[in-house]
Amino acid sequence: MARVLYDGLVEYEDETPATTSQMAKDVVEFLNWAAEPEMDDRKRMGIKVLAATAVLFSISIWVKRYKWAWLKSRKIVYDPPKETKVTRPYRY
Predict the structure, then answer these.
(1) CA–CA gap between residue 68 and residue 74 (Å, rounded)
(2) CB neighbour list of residue 27: distance below 8 Å, 6 or more residues apart
(3) What pLDDT, on a 0 to 100 scale, did the predictor assign at position 88?
C-alpha cells in the first residue's frame, strides 16, 4: 500500500508545520476521540467527584477534631478499691 500522508499535505490555521508525524498524530487523536466521545463527560464528572470528596473529607476531619475532642481529651483515673482490715483469716 502506498503512503497516504505526505509532508505539506494540510495547512494548519496556527501555522504548525505539516509534517508526516504531525498529521499522523492528528489522525490518532481524532480516532481516539471518535472511539470515546463520552470521555470529556467522564473527566468532568471525575473532577466533580474529586471536589465533593475533598469537601466531605474536610468536613469529616472537622467533626473528628472539634466535635469529638471532649471524648478524646478526657482523663481516665484509676480508683483502686479501699482496703479493708481482715481481723481473722478465712478458714475452710
Answers:
(1) 10
(2) 5
(3) 66
pLDDT at 59 over 90: yes
Query: Per residue, what are the HEC states of 42-92?
Result: HHHHHHHHHHHHHHHHHHHHHHHHHHCHHHHCCCCCCCCCCCCCCCCCCCC
Judged by DSSP in three states, 27 sits in helix
Q: Any idea which residue has 508545520 for its cell?
A: 17
Q: Which of 4, 1, 46, 54 is nearest to 27 (CA)?
A: 4
Annotated binding site for heme c: which residue ranges?
A: 1
pLDDT at 86: 65
Mean pLDDT (the chain) is 86
Q: pLDDT tens, 72-92? A: 788 888 888 887 776 666 666
Residue whose grid cell is 470521555: 39
Q: Residues marked as binding? A: 1
